[in-house]
Amino acid sequence: MKLLRGTDATAVQSGDDQPDQSTSDIIISSEEQVSDMSLSQIVINAVKSFRSSVPDCVAAGVVDMSTGMLLSVETTDSHPQEVLDLLAAATFDLFQGRNVTMIEDMFKARRGVSGGGHYFQEILVNSQNLTHLFLRSTVSPNIVAAIVCRRSVNIGMMFAQARLVMRQMEAEGV
To answer: What is the spatial distance between Cα 31 and Cα 76, in angstroms, rounded to a whole number?
Structure first.
């Protein structure tokens, strides 16, 4: 595994292990081909769009639920890698933890819904100073975006802008 900082994929293409520094992170498997960079770039661009489009956004990230990995993140503050790893793990627990999947199964059974799809698609969490929105992709259910805004955010605008960016990311192939 390699943690790359910045949005310039040329460092990966040229084999340079010292890419440009910025507030964006993306984790790329060492086996990944250069042709896969477009998917990585789509995720990086989506995270940047979440940060710039969603009002009062202080952090955004994308988590791959199949691996539990944080694919990309951008924040206004720097955070230790342990905190970012916990974000990915917490996102997984919110959507696919043991108790959550039991609740999903119960809701599906009571509503007569069959199939292996996930019942919960969006989760909003308010903390003391922040509002956290977690959106599951409708096209790729293993992709979840995490958007963190100041508590003063207009919730309706937060949802509208975040959903718009998610739809754009899905249209680009994620």
So the answer is: 31
